[in-house]
């Protein structure tokens, strides 16, 4: 099941109109350590701070309280993100550009079953420059083991990432081809016999898109670190949705992009210990 926690965001949508910065960021991650059950409930109160120089808004879904160890990891990361932001605020106290500085971060539930819980983190950090930097992370939590499942653990064989990368790359390119073809038609351009736009400028854009997709989907687990389960009616994983922040596989204007890879494609490459989570496993 999928639910969204209704939460306010302090970041003004006007930030979207600013020109892009070099890359997206993940919310800060606290020092890695084996997750352990929390001895007491974690304080997941929403954070709202207002100052002449900065704004902070961080929100958490109430369902997260049902999973103390996961909640503790999420809270550690949120606190680390805020601490990093405040360091940047202090380091730029003489900043004279558009402001104030802003940190907006929302955590929401993606899935919750007796075996697996998934949480999404989405937000923006603006500490000067053209516009805010996107913040994006995904947590997939195994309840039997009470630990976070990483992409490297899920698909341990490099050959598996070759297959997954190829599948994702093909579908990202198909989306781009369709987009450029529609742009050409909207502009009154002619299509070739294969249905692809003939306009030289659009062809150049398609080549640039292909280059970004190829770089951002190199068959390495770190390029697929952000994933979330798509559950079937039986509660098993029918597909994984890989989430790519702006700049990884496209320009800032393309926003966050996602591709779903079905269980049938994934299963031959999934670690034996995790295959039971998947449909057909």
UniProtKB/TrEMBL annotation:
Domain annotation DUF3298: ranges: 203-262
Biased composition (Low complexity): 22-33
Region (Disordered): 22-44
Pfam families xref list: DUF3298 (PF11738)
Keywords: Signal
Signal peptide: 1-24
Highest rank taxon of the organism: Bacteria
InterPro entries named among the record's database cross-references: DUF3298 (IPR021729), PdaC/RsiV-like_sf (IPR037126)
Name of the protein this chain belongs to: DUF3298 domain-containing protein
């Amino acid at each position: 099941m999928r639910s969204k926690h209704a939460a306010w965001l302090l970041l003004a949508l006007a930030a979207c109109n600013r020109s892009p910065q070099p890359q997206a960021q993940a919310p800060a991650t606290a020092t890695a350590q084996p997750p352990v059950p929390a001895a007491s409930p974690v304080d997941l109160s929403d954070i709202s701070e207002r100052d002449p120089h900065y704004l902070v808004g961080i929100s958490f879904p109430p369902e997260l309280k049902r999973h103390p160890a996961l909640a503790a990891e999420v809270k550690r990361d949120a606190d680390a993100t805020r601490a990093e932001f405040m360091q940047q605020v202090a380091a730029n106290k003489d900043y004279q550009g558009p402001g104030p500085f802003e940190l907006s971060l929302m955590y929401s539930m993606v899935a919750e079953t007796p075996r697996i819980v998934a949480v999404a983190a989405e937000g923006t950090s603006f500490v000067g420059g053209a516009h805010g930097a996107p913040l994006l992370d995904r947590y997939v939590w195994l309840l039997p083991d009470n630990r976070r499942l990483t992409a490297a653990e899920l698909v341990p064989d490099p050959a598996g990432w070759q297959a997954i990368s190829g599948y994702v790359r093909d579908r990202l390119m198909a989306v781009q081809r369709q987009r450029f073809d529609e742009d050409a038609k909207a502009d009154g351009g002619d299509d070739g016999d294969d249905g692809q736009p003939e306009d030289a400028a659009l062809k150049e854009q398609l080549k640039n898109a292909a280059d970004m997709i190829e770089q951002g989907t190199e068959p390495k687990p770190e390029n697929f670190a952000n994933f979330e389960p798509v559950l079937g009616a039986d509660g098993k994983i029918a597909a994984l949705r890989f989430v790519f922040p702006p700049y990884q596989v496209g320009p800032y204007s393309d926003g966050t992009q996602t591709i779903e890879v079905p269980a049938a494609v994934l299963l031959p490459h999934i670690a034996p210990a995790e295959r039971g989570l998947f449909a057909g496993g």
